[in-house]
């Protein structure tokens, strides 16, 4: 296969396919959110349909994942009904060399963290553009907060040295509303020196539900990239 005129799409497809290939019959699978995971969900559905695997159940991390799972024929379950998750497949907005992540580009990081952190194996699927030396260098850090606390949360973030902005909707007037009915503040930090500490500090601000730092959660990072005009998938 050659990459044609949309290399990023091809990288996402290939890495999504590679992650879907790791799922075995009988597994409980965390279904992530975003354009890369969407390909993994599609290929997982194809594997079920062809009979290559059977008896899997998905736990969606967002409304988007739930809709896609239904579209591709993946039976769903909930965290009430299962006592473990075998594998979770999810995308990321940035990945550092220690496999720490920034997530939340799709405003789904709260449910994603619940599902991804519970999984025995959390597989991250990204294209090579997501790799950074230091988190926060290319992507703003998403922080989900309850609507009545937006102003004090933004002030508290400024005191920590961050520059907060409320995420606004596209083709929707006003702020983005998460699947939980909250809002997202995107924060520019000049430098995130200690992601583990910042993750805890932000979550300690009253009114914050969850932030997009995923520290020490990922087990495997699969990277889609283009080498000599061909798409390849490698493990970090
Ligand atoms: C959603 C996420 C996504 O996984 C992340 O934004 C990556 O998305 P994409 O695969 O479309 O680049 O964290 O909240």
State the order of secondary-structure elements, H for helix, E for strand: HEHEHEEEHEEHEEHEEEE
Taken together, the total number of domains comes to: 2
Number of strands: 13
| Annotated CATH architecture of the largest domain | 3-Layer(aba) Sandwich
Shape: globular
- Structural class call reads alpha/beta
Taking all Cα atoms into account, the compactness measure Rg is 18 Å
Q: Between the first and last Cα atoms, what is the distance in angstroms?
A: 22 Å
Strand order of the largest sheet: 2-1-3-6-12-13
The distinct ligands, each listed once, are: ribulose-5-phosphate
Short account of what is shown:
This protein has 236 residues and is an alpha/beta fold.
How would you describe this protein?
This protein is an alpha/beta fold and 236 residues long. The protein has 2 domains: 7-131 and 216-235, Rossmann fold (3-Layer(aba) Sandwich); 141-209, ACT domain (Alpha-Beta Plaits, 2-Layer Sandwich). 29% of the residues lie in helices and 26% in strands. The chain has 6 helices and 13 strands. Strands 2-1-3-6-12-13 form a 6-stranded mixed beta sheet. A 4-stranded antiparallel beta sheet has the order 8-9-7-10, with helices on one face. The site of ribulose-5-phosphate has 17 residues, from α2 and α4.
């Amino acid at each position: 296969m050659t990459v044609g005129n949309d290399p990023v799409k091809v990288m996402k497809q290939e890495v999504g396919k590679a992650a879907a290939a790791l799922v075995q019959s009988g597994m409980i699978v965390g279904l992530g959110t975003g354009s890369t995971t969407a390909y993994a969900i599609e290929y997982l559905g194809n594997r079920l349909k062809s009979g290559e695997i059977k008896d899997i159940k998905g736990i969606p991390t967002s409304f988007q994942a739930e809709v896609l799972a239904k579209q591709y024929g993946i039976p769903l379950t909930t965290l009430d009904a299962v006592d473990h998750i075998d594998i979770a497949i999810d995308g990321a907005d940035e990945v550092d060399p220690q496999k720490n992540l920034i997530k939340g580009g799709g405003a789904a990081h709260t449910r994603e963290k619940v599902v991804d952190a519970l999984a025995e194996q959390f597989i991250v699927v990204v294209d090579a553009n997501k790799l950074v030396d230091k988190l926060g260098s290319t992507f703003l850090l998403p922080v989900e907060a309850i609507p009545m606390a937006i102003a004090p949360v933004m002030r508290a973030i400024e005191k920590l040295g961050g520059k907060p902005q409320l995420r606004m909707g596209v083709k929707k007037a006003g702020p983005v509303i998460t699947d939980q009915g909250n809002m997202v503040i995107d924060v520019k930090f000049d430098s995130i020196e200690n992601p583990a500490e910042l993750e805890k500090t932000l979550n300690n601000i009253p009114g914050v539900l969850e932030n997009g730092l995923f520290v020490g959660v990922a087990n495997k990072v699969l990277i889609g990239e283009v080498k000599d005009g061909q798409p390849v998938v490698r493990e970090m």
